[in-house]
What does this fold into?
Amino acid sequence: GAVVSQHPSWVICKSGTSVKIECRSLDFQATTMFWYRQFPKQSLMLMATSNEGSKATYEQGVEKDKFLINHASLTLSTLTVTSAHPEDSSFYICSAKNRMDEQFFGPGTRLTVL
Amino acid sequence: DAKTTQPPSMDCAEGRAANLPCNHSTISGNEYVYWYRQIHSQGPQYIIHGLKNNETNEMASLIITEDRKSSTLILPHATLRDTAVYYCIVRVGDMRFGAGTRLTVKP
It folds into this structure.
């Protein structure tokens, strides 16, 4: 199956700093990429959808100025958590959809904000 | 606003079949039924999907009722490594997750 990678796999940062998470589709071109957030013992919540070369579409309640998404190529999307606070600590997961409408998930990035 | 209902947890004995039910009574005609699973602290793993016919692959079988209002995922011979949260999703566009079923396979 197709492979989606995320980097870093975990990150610890100080409150007030910004953190960038990368999502790459390794062996296919992703027409659309998605970002999810998962708090402990909860399900995945869709944060935003991004198409290559266009602005991301954010879900209701997700601050677009806090969670900056860039989808500059068909194989790379980045999520930047700006001015991170402890409540932003979570498991962030990306997924990528190919031209056949198949969706593949990355392994996730665990963010801890101190 | 997931469109599926699953039991929160289930147990299964190792080596036995695990049958995980899912209700999706408001499913639309063009929506597929997808199953993913998530092992602790990992990304979701695709299992199987179907529209209206039963499907089988190397991992599992998917049985969809004739009215498409419910389905069952069958793991024919569960192993300890199948312990995970299983998500049933109906989808025509975005993949949105409900609470899922936490399956525990016991020795």
